[in-house]
Amino acid sequence: MAMERVATAMYLAGDLVPASKPKVIPGMEGPVGEVISYALWLLILAGVGGVIFGLIKLATSDKSRNSGGSEPFKWIGGGLVAVILSSSVIAIVNGVAG
């Protein structure tokens, strides 16, 4: 019963991540265009992972004055920058190819 719940949860989580269907960019046919497209989607996933890791560090960090309180915000900010930059590059590439 527990395995069915895990499988259902993974199936539903898979619907949250958009499918990476590379569009053919003029002048970049073949494996180069596909590799760039998949790399941008992996960068988005890495950025989301950085934001989640930063939120976990923020929730579990020592809130005293002697600890480094800015580190979780560095993770969150870096993850957000990665997501924003890669999604804007994907939008630009799709605009050029489409």
Describe this structure in words.
The chain is mainly α and 98 residues long. The protein is flat and about 55 Å long. The protein is 73% helix and 0% strand.
In short:
The chain has three helices and no strands. With 98 residues, the chain is mainly alpha-helical. 6% of the residues are buried.
Percent range for β-strand residues: under 5%
What's the multimeric state?
single chain
Helix share of residues?
A: over 70%
Largest sheet: none
Q: What string, H for helix and E for strand, traces the elements in order?
A: HHH
- C-alpha termini separation: 45 Å
Radius of gyration: 18 Å
Work out the number of β strands.
Answer: 0
Q: Regions with pLDDT < 50 over 5+ consecutive residues?
A: none
Secondary structure elements and pairings:
Elements: H1 2-16, H2 31-60, H3 71-97
Helix pairs in contact: 2-3
Properties at a glance:
3 helices; mainly alpha
